[in-house]
């Protein structure tokens, strides 16, 4: 079915592309939403993904269409997320350079949060190696299970299990007072 549509699209049939978009619209939206966690951003990204799919169709080699478009969607969403993080970091650098705190936070709160983050970074180094990167990616870098799974080349369920086991390890080895 998909291969027939793809051939029609390659031959200039716009209706076939609309059918393809309709068929995979929800799948692409929920894929990018899983990374971006924002409905508006996911809607915009989904449209951009379909544009990428359309322009990339000549390179498609019948290797599993749904997998292929999912990979395009995930990579595009991760690129958007990285740009958002960079933008936030740049804004934070501007605050730091000007010596002003963001209006919503007091200087004391910023200092306390920075100290907690530093303590957490030090403590993360105590974690067993197989938990360290997922904990750092999830809690410090605020990546999604999907993003971590792509980076670690594992299934999102594996990331979930590692985080669960890491939390169990932390409960057993760390006192709650260490972080309050």
Automatic annotation (TrEMBL):
GO terms for biological process: DNA-templated transcription initiation. Residues 118-170 form the RNA polymerase sigma factor 70 region 4 type domain. The keyword Transcription regulation applies. It comes from the Bacteria. InterPro entries: RNA_pol_sigma-70-like, RNA_pol_sigma-70_dom, RNA_pol_sigma70_r2, RNA_pol_sigma70_r4_t2, RNA_pol_sigma_r2, RNA_pol_sigma_r3/r4-like, WH-like_DNA-bd_sf. Residues 20-86 form the RNA polymerase sigma-70 region domain. Keywords: Sigma factor, Transcription, Transcription regulation. Pfam families: Sigma70_r2, Sigma70_r4_2. GO terms for molecular function: DNA binding; sigma factor activity. Belongs to the sigma-70 factor family. ECF subfamily. PANTHER family: RNA POLYMERASE ECF-TYPE SIGMA FACTO, RNA POLYMERASE SIGMA FACTOR. This is Sigma-70 family RNA polymerase sigma factor.
């Amino acid at each position: 079915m998909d291969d027939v549509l793809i051939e029609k699209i390659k031959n200039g049939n716009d209706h076939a592309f609309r059918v393809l978009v309709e068929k995979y619209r929800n799948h692409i939206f929920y894929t990018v939403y899983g990374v971006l966690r924002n409905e508006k951003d996911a809607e915009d990204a989904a449209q951009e993904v379909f544009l990428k799919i359309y322009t990339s169709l000549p390179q498609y080699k019948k290797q599993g269409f749904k997998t292929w478009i999912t990979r395009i969607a995930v990579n595009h969403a991760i690129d958007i997320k990285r740009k958002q993080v960079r933008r936030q970091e740049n804004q934070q650098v501007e605050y730091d350079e000007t010596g002003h705190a963001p209006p919503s936070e007091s200087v004391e709160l910023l200092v306390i949060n920075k100290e907690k983050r530093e303590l957490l970074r030090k403590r993360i180094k105590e974690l067993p190696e197989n938990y360290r990167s997922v904990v750092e990616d999830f809690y410090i870098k605020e990546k999604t299970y999907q993003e971590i799974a792509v980076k670690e080349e594992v299934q999102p369920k594996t990331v979930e299990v590692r985080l669960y086991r890491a939390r169990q390890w932390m409960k057993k080895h760390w006192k709650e007072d260490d972080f309050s």
